[in-house]
């Protein structure tokens, strides 16, 4: 029940923050609307303030070209998938809850991505990792910079707030209403709720890995999957988004620009394979990982943003 409640709060927060719209994600990658970045950095900054004592995220090495090669490759696929679909592993559940067609097509592709990852990609990555003899490492930004944790967090907060301020002052296309201004805070508070209720930070892409594990258990006689918490979180997220959209219709835009079904499906597939290779998605790495000063999260999300910025103008 804790996972369901936490997911419901996060789903409602995503709708309230206004980052569930496909156009918001796509236009951010095209540098035409800065709402997604503003909200994301606000969520990270509000999370980093209180959660620095939890365990940071480790790297996701594959053994091809460095300790963070899985984060780079996975981040690239994640960003490309987000740019194609106008969604992400977390917002797609909010899109489904709000009744957006894009969310359903992206969900279909994402489920196939989860099946592909658990059935083939994960084993191939494991084989390559063992062949190369590499192991995940947990390194934080303060360790890389040679600074204290408190100093690094303060610098990180300053950078986040500076980027938010600059994007508001010097760009156009952002609907800087009271809800967009507090959008990041909504998500940051849902992070706090998740920690208090289920002793875990936010992360959503693992739900597709759980679905894949159950599928292969049924079809290949694979071991019985023991984890379903991420799937319950995803169900809760969809429910929370649906409830808020029905209770407060003003949160849902009247006219929504949907993504083409093929792009949404392919994007969903790519972003799930990528997020699992990288060990997390914009929720797990972007909100949770960066708030813990995880180097792997910075590598993943920087690569994802760069990839999305390359792909979005080509297809939209």
TrEMBL record:
It is found in: Cell inner membrane. Its main location: membrane. InterPro entries: Sulf_transp_TsuA/YedE. One of its GO terms (cellular component) is plasma membrane. It comes from the Eukaryota. The chain crosses the membrane at residues 72-96, 102-122, 176-197. Keywords: Cell inner membrane, Cell membrane, Membrane, Transmembrane, Transmembrane helix, Transport. It is a multi-pass membrane protein. This is Sulphur transport domain-containing protein.
């Amino acid at each position: 029940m804790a996972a369901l409640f936490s997911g419901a709060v996060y789903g409602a927060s995503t709708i309230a923050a206004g980052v569930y719209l496909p156009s918001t994600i796509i236009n951010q990658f095209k540098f035409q609307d800065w709402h997604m970045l503003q909200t994301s950095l606000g969520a990270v900054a509000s999370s980093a303030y209180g959660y620095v004592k939890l365990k940071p995220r480790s790297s996701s090495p594959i053994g091809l070209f460095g300790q963070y090669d899985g984060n780079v490759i996975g981040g690239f696929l994640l960003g490309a998938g987000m740019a194609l679909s106008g969604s992400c592993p977390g917002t797609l559940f909010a899109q489904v809850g709000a009744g957006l067609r894009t969310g359903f097509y992206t969900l279909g592709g994402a489920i196939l991505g989860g099946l592909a990852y658990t059935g083939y990609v994960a084993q191939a990555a494991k084989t390559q990792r063992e062949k190369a003899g590499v192991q995940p490492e947990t390194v934080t930004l303060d360790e890389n910079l040679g600074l204290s944790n408190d100093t690094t967090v303060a610098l990180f907060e300053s950078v986040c707030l500076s980027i938010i301020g600059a994007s508001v002052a010097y760009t156009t296309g952002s609907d800087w209403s009271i809800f967009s201004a507090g959008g990041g805070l909504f998500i940051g508070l849902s992070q706090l709720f998740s920690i208090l209720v289920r002793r875990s930070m936010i992360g959503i892409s693992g739900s597709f890995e759980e679905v894949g594990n159950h599928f292969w258990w049924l079809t290949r006689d694979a071991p019985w999957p023991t984890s379903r918490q991420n799937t319950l979180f995803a169900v809760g997220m969809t429910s929370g988004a649906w409830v808020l959209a029905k209770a407060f219709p003003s949160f849902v835009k009247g006219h929504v620009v949907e993504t083409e079904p093929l792009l949404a499906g392919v994007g969903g597939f790519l972003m799930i394979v990528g997020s699992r290779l990288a060990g997390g998605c914009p929720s797990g790495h972007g909100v949770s990982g960066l708030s813990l000063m995880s180097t792997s999260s910075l590598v993943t999300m920087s690569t994802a943003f760069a990839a999305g910025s390359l792909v979005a103008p080509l297809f939209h």
